[in-house]
């Protein structure tokens, strides 16, 4: 099964629920690409030796990698971290995540500022462009193991919305207007 994405409802119910509109309004990979979001499906069981992952890393300059497991019994300050990940924010660099196990959601804003929920499963690799407003949460399984990739040294700084004055945000908005 490929990547699944949809427009979200406005409910403030548990963030880990799917939050689909009724009827569901799916979002295609082509629509995500117009937002600068890119996707690959890889074999997560082979991540340590996968030539396809190596090619992506080489072609895109992803020189740094680490692995994070997000679940209550292994992540210090779990509730605080999950709340922080779910705050709407942007980064000055692309955000690249590869799900090695479990499931999670990335939510991104479209051109009209509506939320799109992207369901991430084992084997999904996604890049979110610098300057896109987004947030992250687990689903109701409360578990994911993800590879974090960066160009060069990792930068962990998130800028919560509003962050429209950053050059990278303004460049991203121009990119959106051209798509």
Tell me the layout of helices and strands.
Layout: E1 4-7, H1 29-34, E2 38-41, H2 51-60, E3 64-70, H3 78-86, E4 89-90, E5 95-109, E6 115-121, E7 124-128, E8 134-138, E9 144-150, E10 159-160, H4 167-178
Antiparallel strand pairs: 1-6, 2-7, 3-9, 4-10, 5-6, 5-7, 5-8, 5-9
List keywords for this structure.
globular
What does this entry show, briefly?
The protein is α+β, with helices and mostly antiparallel strands and 179 residues long. The protein has helices at residues 29-34, 51-60, 78-86, 167-178, and strands at 4-7, 38-41, 64-70, 89-90, 95-109, 115-121, 124-128, 134-138, 144-150, 159-160.
Describe this structure in words.
- There is one protein chain.
- By secondary structure, the protein is α+β, with helices and mostly antiparallel strands.
- The protein has helices spanning 29-34, 51-60, 78-86, 167-178, and strands spanning 4-7, 38-41, 64-70, 89-90, 95-109, 115-121, 124-128, 134-138, 144-150, 159-160.
- Strands 1, 2, 3, 5, 6, 7, 8 and 9 form an eight-stranded antiparallel beta sheet that branches. It has a two-stranded antiparallel ribbon with strand order 4-10.
- The longest helix is centred in the C-terminal third of the chain and has 12 residues, at 167-178.
- It is globular and about 40 Å long.
- The two termini are 27 Å apart.
């Amino acid at each position: 099964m490929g990547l699944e994405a949809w427009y979200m409802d406005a409910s403030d119910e548990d963030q880990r629920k799917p939050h689909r509109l009724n009827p569901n309004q799916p979002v295609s990979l082509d629509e995500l690409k117009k937002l600068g979001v890119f996707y690959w499906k890889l074999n997560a069981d082979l991540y340590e030796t996968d030539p396809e992952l190596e090619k992506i890393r080489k072609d895109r300059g992803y020189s740094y990698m680490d692995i994070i497991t997000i679940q209550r019994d292994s992540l210090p300050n779990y509730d605080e971290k999950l709340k922080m990940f779910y705050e709407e924010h942007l980064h000055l660099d692309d955000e690249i995540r590869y799900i090695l196990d479990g499931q999670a959601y990335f939510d991104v804003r479209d051109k009209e500022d509506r939320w799109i929920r992207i369901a991430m499963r084992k084997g999904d690799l996604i890049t979110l462009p610098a300057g896109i407003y987004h947030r992250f949460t687990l689903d109701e399984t409360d578990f994911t193991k993800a590879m974090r990739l960066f160009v060069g040294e990792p930068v962990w700084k998130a800028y919560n919305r509003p962050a429209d004055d950053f050059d990278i945000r303004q460049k991203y908005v121009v990119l959106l207007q051209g798509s």
